[in-house]
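Hello everyone,

My group is preparing for a crystallization screen and wants a predicted model to guide construct design. The compound we'll soak is adenosine-5'-triphosphate. Before spending weeks at the bench, it would help to have a computed complex in hand. I've included the protein sequence and the ligand's SMILES below. Output in structure-token form would be ideal because that's what our pipeline reads.
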Amino acid sequence: LRLEALELYGFKSFVDKTKVTFPDGTTCIVGPNGCGKSNIADAICWVLGEQSAKSLRGSKMEDVIFAGSANRKPAGYAEVTMTWQRIEALQDEKESRLVVTRRLYRNGDSEYLINQTACRLKDIQNALWDFGMGSKAYSIIEQGKIGQILNAKPQERRTLIEEAA
Amino acid sequence: LRLEALELYGFKSFVDKTKVTFPDGTTCIVGPNGCGKSNIADAICWVLGEQSAKSLRGSKMEDVIFAGSANRKPAGYAEVTMTWQRIEALQDEKESRLVVTRRLYRNGDSEYLINQTACRLKDIQNALWDFGMGSKAYSIIEQGKIGQILNAKPQERRTLIEEAA
Amino acid sequence: CIEKFRETFNTVNERFGHNFRELFGGGAAQLQLLDEDNALESGIDMLVQPPGKKLQNVLLMSGGEKAMTAIALLFAIFEYKPSPFCLLDEVDAPLDEVNVTRFMRKLEEMKRNTQFIIITHHKITMSGASSLLGVTMEETGCSKLVSVKFN
Amino acid sequence: CIEKFRETFNTVNERFGHNFRELFGGGAAQLQLLDEDNALESGIDMLVQPPGKKLQNVLLMSGGEKAMTAIALLFAIFEYKPSPFCLLDEVDAPLDEVNVTRFMRKLEEMKRNTQFIIITHHKITMSGASSLLGVTMEETGCSKLVSVKFN
Ligand SMILES: Nc1ncnc2c1ncn2[C@@H]1O[C@H](COP(=O)(O)OP(=O)(O)OP(=O)(O)O)[C@@H](O)[C@H]1O
Ligand SMILES: Nc1ncnc2c1ncn2[C@@H]1O[C@H](COP(=O)(O)OP(=O)(O)OP(=O)(O)O)[C@@H](O)[C@H]1O
Ligand SMILES: [Mg+2]
Ligand SMILES: [Mg+2]
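Reply:
Good plan to model first. Here are the tokens for the complex, ready for your pipeline.
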């Protein structure tokens, strides 16, 4: 399984529909302070099912919806779509991609989709678990978190090992 | 009052007697990872009277004494001497410098000196307070602490303002 | 006492807003007492608006923006109650080149009244120093000073 | 269950020590159960010895050394239980050029089995990537992607 693309719409500072494509190999995301790099990381956490607003640097989940800028009004909802590609492509082209979408409206309503079919958040988490994306605790290292790993208390370090077990 | 020099002996990675001179203007301390730059910052905190081993990245105060290396035995004590220079030099040259020394032996014994005269830690703290070095809470920003200032809880932010009041 | 705290709070708040605008080239920022009627004990909140962006929770800012904001607050406290020297250990670590340059410019202004000692890996920050102190560990585990030429 | 935990712990511990030696060019590091007889609940301690230095509390290490050690542990967990991709946000921020290069070399080895997405300000890290994704805020407050040429 390989992460092929990420589409953001109304998510944090990505007000316009933005498609991020990840070619084969290592991708480096670069740019000046505050331009939106970590917001892309947040989008990945969010579409994988992150439930804690605090982990996304917000105080409430509504904080991930584009809040407006000097020239733009706030967005009505935030949407992130993630496309996975099976590395061993199957006979049926349609079967070789997994497309996951998460949407959040300002009134708090949430929508989840797998391959354009409505589902629950749990279905997304199960589908990803089958593909080995079970715990993102150690596959996504947020900005500043590297220091936490070492300053962690002995019990917290145990939790890190238990997640891998 | 101006910080003129700092002498380290057996303090953390500075096993040999090392004199750090601060010329007029801004001094930049540079070097590779782990070479000892932050240890110089720790030496300044320590000679100013830091009582918490944790603030110096240790678990006990004995951790500031040179612990030995591949080719060297551990030191028996740590000593840091700080020399302040009065900016408006007085008639009596001898009066124009304030020399503060702190020493810690492995058995836990501590010694403090002002201008080579034995004194208590309290005397050092009083002498510095008279010179406006009262609270080093905001005049020494340790590595990584800049993030803490913003992530601080509202009550902690209040403490920062109260220290300046 | 409450009078002293109010005076400190207001002065620092004004300097904080001023420094923020200088370091960000615009925008606005201020401290706010959570409970106006309980100035004796109330915690302090921070509201920030980088130029062109919406007023938001300070936590939503990027790593570099948070560092610049923290520096603005620190310098504000410093300007209110100066200390003979100020030691900064890698405060410029998360900053890109544009922001390191803005930080340097603010430092130029601050250094007239304060002796700065700065630990850094950034070449731009080093270029603004009047003297460079090099530290190495030629012999493993043993620190020593070396003279540094800036090229 | 206790068997699974012990197996995970031992494998990760061995990889951790191996990665540490690679990233530091020597030295040693290991995890240790605080309470050997209570493997079911015991916390985990970390002992580190950078090359040429004494075995010490991990907290005494420098900012850059702590980052390298955390990367060694992270990669150890990753090698034990690989994930389709790994996203690293500015983990190389406190590293000097020598250490960034060592980190890059370890990454070369790890990328055969994992897709890495790395956010960085370091030119050396960028030079090792197969593709660069640029992000800007041409219009204030609105992010967009741009193509990046590496020179
Ligand atoms: N809901 C939102 N609506 C609009 N803008 C937002 C929203 N949430 C966050 N932002 C903005 O996104 C910016 C942060 O972006 P991000 O954290 O991705 O920066 P970065 O590229 O990682 O920068 P750095 O290099 O400093 O870490 C902040 O300026 C913040 O104001
Ligand atoms: N008591 C001690 N005896 C010997 N060495 C010590 C002692 N305490 C700390 N050290 C060593 O000092 C080193 C840390 O130095 P320091 O924190 O000053 O590095 P630094 O130059 O700030 O690096 P960085 O750029 O990574 O922050 C560590 O390698 C640590 O092992
Ligand atoms: Mg960031
Ligand atoms: Mg350091």
